[in-house]
Write a structure and sequence with these properties.
Acyl_CoA_acyltransferase; N-acetyltransferase domain-containing protein; N-acetyltransferase; seven-stranded mixed sheet; Aminopeptidase; GNAT_dom
């Protein structure tokens, strides 16, 4: 790295460590050091979106997320999903955040589902007010990254109502392939890891 670059931009990688200096981010009007502190304390996210476990303090906000009216038949309510999470041992609920704003919800396996050994994404939705901004792809990518962290994750499964063409396009765009199998009337797609 050029010496002038270090003087001008004192945020750099050195021998595998990340050195933080107080650099002003004019676009976000915060310092990089403040951003890192926010991350370490569980607030905010550096990626376009991040996942946060649904806790009692954000549960109601999560329940209030809604798809568009024409999408209601495609996805169960988040209240129903949170109730399902309480019944499933492998499934955990997460809020999807863009910066500090909750934009969606996901319910997915963090360990193999006992019946088939796959990691399922049971529910996934983006609130109607935040659709069309790339949060669906970014949120689903964050879920996939989290599932792939588990050493036993070899297949990730997701399903959707057959005529939900937007979901089908999103899932296939991230590498899922239709299996030809239907479960409870929904088309199943697999992603081999």
């Amino acid at each position: 790295m050029q010496p002038w670059f270090r003087k001008r931009f004192p945020l750099f990688f050195e021998e595998g460590t990340f050195e933080i200096h107080d650099v002003w981010d004019q676009e976000k009007q915060i310092t990089i050091a403040e951003s890192v502190k926010k991350l370490k304390t569980g607030g905010g996210c550096m990626d376009p979106v991040c996942l946060k476990p649904v806790t009692d303090d954000i549960r109601q906000q999560c329940i209030e997320l809604r798809p568009r009216d024409d999408q209601l038949r495609f996805v169960a309510s988040n209240l129903n999903s949170l109730q399902k999470a309480a019944e499933e041992k492998t499934c955990y609920p997460y809020a999807i955040y863009a910066d500090d704003v909750m934009v969606g919800f996901a319910l997915f396996d963090e360990e193999p589902y006992p019946e088939d050994g796959c990691f399922w994404i049971v529910r996934f939705m983006i609130d109607r007010n935040y659709q069309g901004r790339g949060y669906g792809k970014a949120g689903l990518s964050a879920v996939l990254r989290k599932q792939k962290e588990h050493p036993a994750c070899t297949v990730i499964r997701i399903s959707h109502v057959p005529d939900n063409t937007a979901a089908n396009r999103l899932y296939k765009g991230l590498g899922f392939k239709e299996t030809g199998q239907f479960i409870n009337g929904e088309l199943v797609l697999d992603l081999e890891v």
